[in-house]
Amino acid sequence: MNKNGIEAVVFDLDGVITDTAHYHYLAWKQLAEELGIKIDEKFNERLKGVSRMDSLELILQEGNRQDDFTLAEKEEMAGRKNLHYCDFLKELTPSDVLPGILELIADIKADGIPIGLASVSKNAETVLNALQLQNEFDYIADAAKIKKSKPDPEIFLTACAGLGANPLYSIGVEDAAAGIKAIKASGMFAVGVGNLEGSDLQVTATKELLWDEIKAAFTTER
Ligand code: B16
Ligand code: MG
Questions:
Q1: 36, 57, 148, 175: least buried by Cβ within 10 Å?
Q2: What is the per-residue burial (b if ≥16 Cβ within 10 Å, else e) of 115-126?
Q3: CA-based nearest residue to 115, from 154, 160, 167
């Protein structure tokens, strides 16, 4: 354990490291329109941190079309959404890292604390490569091996285990309600970006993620 008593910091990807959460929304909206279903940004909040197939189910339920398709048809639709999403990813460059994130990562590293990634996205590696951040993480949980998406704690517990860190002395950073629930269920300290009920520390935007303030809040709480 380092001098702050913090054993690891684990980040969500979409919406925390970069704004791919918006690309996911645009890609789902495109698919939903193809199916004659309307979704808006408020509905999209429910998709954040939720796996591809679970997101599709929520959209079909929204359009009352949950019983209209076979599994093979649903897999084709999820694949089509992913193609829309991957088209958006072609635009991604290192300048798309959200404000304050590079500074935060540098400050955590300067304290000798390992950094993990807990993204349920199967495109996480592509996104990190496009942002040139692939070497910044000491452990990246493999979304393909995760059985339960957020709000289940599995992915955060997997990241802590991969870093050799006790979740009770680790911090998770999230932008989604399902993600905050996952962090809390794992026993970690939850930092929320956005109006997120249940966060131990809440900021309105990534540029407010200041390492000294996060450490102080963690120390007060634990
Ligand atoms: P993919 P996170 C999540 O990533 C997204 O928030 C969610 O919107 C998306 O459906 C999910 O990944 C699966 O992504 O379709 O790329 O496998 O927030 O856990 O980083
Ligand atoms: Mg997210």
A1: 36
A2: bbbbbbbebbeb
A3: 160
Determine whether the shortest distance from the Cβ of 122 to ligand 1 is under 6 A: yes
Q: Of the CATH numbers 3.90.190.20, 3.40.50.450, 3.40.190.10, 3.40.50.1000, which one belongs to the domain with range 8-19+97-221?
A: 3.40.50.1000
Which of 12, 19, 43, 120 maximizes ligand 1 atoms within 8 Å of its Cβ, making it the mutation to test the pocket?
120
- Ligand 2 centre to CA of 16 (Å) is 6
Domain locations in the chain as residue ranges: 8-19+97-221, 21-89
pTM listed for this prediction: 0.91
pLDDT digits (tens, 9 = 90+) for 73-107: 999 999 999 999 999 999 999 999 999 999 999 99
| Residue 1 pLDDT exceeds 60 | no
Which atom of ligand 1 lies at the shortest distance from residue 123's CA? Answer: 16
Is 182:165 a contact under the CB 8 Å cutoff?
Answer: no
